[in-house]
Amino acid sequence: MRIGLITEGGYPHVSGDAGLWCDRLVRGLAQHEFDIYALSRSREQEDAGWVPLPEQVSRVRTAPLWTADDDGGAYGRRARRRFTECYGELVGVLCAGSDAAPGDAAPHHLADRFGNALYALAELARDEGGLVGALRSDTAVRTLERACRAPGALRTAREARVPDLLTITAHLERALRPLSLDWYGDDGLGAADVCHATAGGPAALPGLLARHFGDVPLLVTEYGVQLRSHYLALGPDAAAPAVRALLAAFHGRLAAEVYRSAAILTPGNAHTRRWQERCGAERPRIRTVHPGMDASRFAEVGEAPDRADADTLVWVGRVEPAKDLISLLHAFAEVRREAPKARLRIVGAPAGPEGPVYLRHCRALAAQLFPDEAEGVHAVGDNPVSFEEIGGPEAPTLPDAYAAGAVVVLSSVVEGFPISLVEAMFCGRATVSTDVGAVVEVIGGTGLVVPPRNPRALAEACVALLHDPERRARLGAAARARALELFTAEQNIAAFRSIYLEIVSRCPVRRVVLDEAGEPLPFAAPAEAHVPVHWTGPTARVLTQDVPGWAAGGPVRATPLAAPEGAR
Q1: Nearest in space to 340 (alpha carbons), one of 432, 470, 466, 213
Q2: C or N terminus of the chain, fewer CB within 10 Å?
Q3: Are 412 and 434 in contact (CB under 8 A)?
Q4: Cβ atoms 541, 556 nearer than 8 A
Q5: Interval 35-52: pLDDT, tens
Q6: How far is Cα 341 from Cα 27, in angstroms, rounded to an integer?
Q7: DSSP one-letter code for 88
Q8: Number of Cβ within a 10 Å radius of residue 178
Q9: Within 13 Å of residue 198, how many CA atoms lie on the same side as its CB?
Q10: Residue 69: how many CB atoms within 10 A of its CB?
Q11: 19-28 vs 489-506: helix axis angle to the nearest 10?
Q12: Can you tell me whether residue 378 is helix, strand or coil?
């Protein structure tokens, strides 16, 4: 079958999110044909190039989300009136008051209004060649202002000032850029058997439009909650109240439309699944598919657990405030009181704009809490806490970092799917983790879990494992067995192979084949057309339902059946 794979800020670009997972998926399903539709996030990402693509990738189409050229010519009077009505309906839904709490599913009438307005704007973009100029126009700002001042609008919306209106308009223009793409015809996503969006939110917009224009079934995979990310990005210090309220409403309504339109949703963990259900996703259409990881690179360490230093704790990850290394350092100070020979190795590079400053702060705190120690007056002092990076002499590879410690620690206060925890499980290491994100779901009783921001509890759990090598060995072996059963790339690929077949069997793309008289030919699309192997048969011209015969050239004559030998 043909899969239209939609990515945002990742595959097939060298840098970005979910690139490795998408590459494994495409390579693991060689019996299918993939068309890649990639939304890029920056010029630097585009300039970095693509990863090598397998032969089952038929084509790649890219579009930038970070910039958009104006459409050119101005709309005529009828098109301007049509845009004002559609855009006014969309922002009117955002400004409308609702009893639903943030993140909850919107009332049905608001969800229907939002969806109808969104698809009406997409149809306008198809008819007029794009929406970018209209979404940037003064008409868009005035339409938004009228919606904010309308009776029954949210109080925060009524308080919006001109700078707030400009900010909201600019954000909506960026989020709605996929509506102006030319990806939705028979030469694009309309020709796919399944449209697979690798993220929710605006990244799933092309999938929504392929479903609207071509009735292509949509599969949405979320390994992180896009809606939650937008809520966190719109904190009190980031924007004015009116901006936060209206943009939160937009992303909430969009998430709800994606969830109710998808044939199947595949969250990566129970945490993401709960968000989807709260936003209106129907439970029967949800299949939890854990991210798949390459276990072979950790096999040598996992099969030789005795390599670990019995007195060493290891932390591996990106150095940033969400990882709460401050609590880890304070916890280690208590560990040292119970286990004086204990050492802590922090392995990772700073990430994000706050990473370098946070790393310096952690180094200063470690120097304050643990002055250099020496065994005698003539020996050189040594700090029990070390800060290292992968590729250095102490940790040349990622498996070497995990192999260095008897216990792996995760101290995060915010976490989605804990990749480092799964890697430690592949290595057969006992773990101590904070109860955040999908940690409990991943660890499943094969490690110790403590509350976040609780250095005392973290220290007690670490000391308990450092003092009990037999318990460490049992937990490490159980963790490795669990990871090999649930979190391998092979498990992930097998799950999506089954889901693709389920979608095609339940939601086949409806197409019309014409006979020699130009009439629809019954039973012209054989069942074998959806079997995931290369199939050849009589050539016929295929039309999607929304394209009339006169718009796609002359009909193709149906192949006549051969007469039996006795009738000749």
Answers
A1: 466
A2: C
A3: yes
A4: yes
A5: 999 999 888 888 888 999
A6: 47
A7: H
A8: 24
A9: 25
A10: 10
A11: 70
A12: coil
Lowest mean pLDDT among 93-97, 237-241, 531-535: 531-535
Angle at the Cα of 82 from the Cα atoms of 78 and 85, rounded to 5 degrees: 140
Beta bridge partners of 195: 4, 218
Per-residue pLDDT of 64-83, as tens digits, reads 888 877 665 578 899 999 99
Phi-psi region of 16 (alpha: psi -120 to 50; beta: other; left: phi over 0): left
Report how far residue 541's alpha carbon sits from residue 327's, in angstroms, rounded to the nearest whole number: 65
Number of H helices, E strands in the chain: 21, 14
Q: Are 363 and 388 in contact (CB under 8 A)?
A: no
Taking the C-alpha atoms of residue 298 and residue 425, their distance in angstroms, rounded to an integer, is 9
The answer to which of 73-77, 151-155, 498-502 has the lowest mean pLDDT is: 73-77
- Could you tell me which residues come within 8 angstroms of residue 393 by beta carbon, excluding any fewer than 6 positions away? none
Cα distance between residue 455 and residue 457, in whole Å: 6
Which residues have CB under 8 Å from 235's CB, separation 6+? 244
**221 close to 289: Cβ distance less than 8 angstroms:** yes
Give yes or no for residue 25 having a pLDDT over 70.
yes
Contact (Cβ atoms closer than 8 angstroms) between residue 467 and residue 422: no
Q: What is the residue whose two structure tokens read 């924007």?
A: 239
CA–CA distance, 417 with 433 (Å, rounded to integer)? 13
Q: pLDDT higher for 536 or 203?
A: 203
